[in-house]
Specification:
Blueprint (H helix, E strand, L loop, with lengths): L3 E3 L7 E6 L15 H20 L6 E6 L2 H14 L8
Parallel strand pairs: 2-3
Antiparallel strand pairs: 1-3
Helix pairs in contact: 1-2
Length: 90
Amino acid sequence: MNGCVHMSASRKICVVVPVKDTAQSKQRLAALLPAERRQELALAMFEDVIAAISSVRELAGMVVVTVDSAAAASFSMVAAESASSFPSLR
């Protein structure tokens, strides 16, 4: 897969999604939410973005750039689920 989820071979636009360390995300909410909940929120938001991007059939693919293992694992799960929707992933 080369880190890119291929979506449409006929298109030339690929989306790049940068994700920072989710354990350090949403610092402005620190007074309201503990670190674990802020990380869960950041991952949920990331998954929503990936789901929205995945629904755009006109894209050539998607690349996630991150050092965050939780975000990488989440993206791997989405990529595996998308394999049935995008024949080029098989």
